[in-house]
Structure formats: C-alpha cells, structure tokens
Design goal:
EC number: 1.15.1.1
CATH class of the largest domain: Alpha Beta
CATH topology of the largest domain: minor pseudopilin epsh fold
Largest sheet: 3 strands, antiparallel
Mean pLDDT: 93
Low-confidence stretches: 1-14
Subcellular location: Mitochondrion matrix
Protein name: Superoxide dismutase
CATH architecture of the largest domain: 3-Layer(bab) Sandwich
Number of domains: 2
Distance between the termini: 33 Å
Shape: globular
Radius of gyration: 19 Å
Function: Destroys radicals which are normally produced within the cells and which are toxic to biological systems.
Strand content: 5-15%
CATH superfamily of the largest domain: Iron/manganese superoxide dismutase, C-terminal domain
Family: Belongs to the iron/manganese superoxide dismutase family.
C-alpha cells in the first residue's frame, strides 16, 4: 500500500513538463526612470533564464538519481535545486510585483493589515527598506504572510532561498537586492535603488496575493 502511494508523485516527476521563462507583463523599458531597460532585459532574459535552464538540468539529474535509487546523488543535488528553483520562484513573483502603473500606497484589506501589524504604512516601508538594505551580499527582502499567526511579517532571505520553502511565510512582495538588479544604474548604492523601487510596486498584485493566501 505504501508503494502505491509513491507511484503517483514519482510519475508526476517523470512526466512533468519543463519549466519555462515567463513573459514580462510589460516592456523592458516600462519601469524607467526607476529601473532602466538594460537592467530589466539582462535581469529577465539572462539571469532568470539561467535559473530556469539550470533548474531543468538539475531536475533531469534528480529524476535519474531517483530511478537508480541513488540517495547520495539526490542529496548532492539539493543545493542546486534550492538555488535555481528559488531563483525561478522568486523572480516569477518579482516581475508581477512591479508595474509601470505602480507606486503610492495599497488600499483595502492589505492596507488595514499593514497598519495593524506595523503601525503605519510609513513604518512598514521603512522596516522593509532597512531589512533589504541590511542583506549581506546577495539576497531578498520580503513581505510575507504568516498563516499560523494570521499576520504580516518581514523577512530577509540569503541568495535565492525561496521565502515559503525556507521560512514557511507565504510571499506577497519581494525586493531583489542582488547587484544584478540595480548595479548598472545605481552602482553600489543599494539605498538609492530601494528608494526608487517603491515608485513601481504593483499594490494590486500584492493585494491579490494577500487575499488569496487568506482563503
């Protein structure tokens, strides 16, 4: 009976389709002057594409290791799965978190939750910015939802660690603070990039994510 339970998920892994690079919902230059077209093109078509390609390669190797029952190989592939899988997950969220029509402040239930959990939108913005600035090396600043506690929470993740897979928080808003996300425009001044990005945050997307995870 236990063997039967394993057949379905393993079959899904064997027959699944490969991951693909999602299209951006706007042109590369649509977020200017806050994030320029060159950065967006390189970030999407090169960096994110690399995570997708490497994830597909790693999953093929993992499928082979599963078929052979090679647990050592499965374990050795975990870091690559986490890094490239996280890179794909994080960036897929990130593109939708941004919009040429973004900026300002959220409305409705999300705004009420921000006021409840952080005191004010200004306090929330200051805290998420500070956490993002404070990431050592490469990583992400996140607004997530703690489903067990029913509240919003700010967290930083190193490298491409996915928020939900490493902290349990459901991702609502992610800010990429890898240098490739801003260096060509803002050089090494991360705070200037973080000040600018608030002008293109897609609060409708963040709000819809919040509503979905509360169901």
């Amino acid at each position: 009976r236990n063997s039967a339970k394993l057949i379905a998920p393993l079959g899904c892994l064997v027959s699944r389709q490969k991951h693909t690079l999602p299209d951006l919902p706007y042109d590369y230059g649509a977020l200017e002057p806050h994030i320029n077209a060159t950065i967006m093109q390189l970030h999407h078509s090169k960096h994110h594409a690399t995570y997708v390609n490497n994830l597909n390669v790693t999953e093929e190797k993992y499928k082979e290791a599963l078929a052979k029952g090679d647990v050592t190989a499965q374990v050795s592939l975990q870091p690559a799965l986490k890094f490239n899988g996280g890179g794909h997950i994080n960036h897929t969220i990130f593109w939708t978190n941004l919009s040429p029509n973004g900026g300002g402040e959220p409305k409705g239930e999300l705004m009420e939750a921000i006021k409840r959990d952080f005191g004010s939108f200004a306090n929330f913005k200051e805290k998420l910015t500070a956490v993002s600035v404070g990431v050592q090396g490469s990583g992400w600043g996140w607004l997530g939802y703690n489903k067990e506690q029913g509240r919003l929470q700010i967290e930083a993740c190193a490298n491409q660690d996915p928020l939900q897979g490493t902290t349990g928080l459901i991702p609502l808003l992610g800010i990429d603070v890898w240098e490739h996300a801003y260096y060509l425009q803002y050089k090494n001044v991360r705070p200037d990039y973080l000040k600018a990005i608030w002008n293109v945050i897609n609060w409708e997307n963040v709000s819809s994510r919040y509503a979905a995870c509360k169901k």
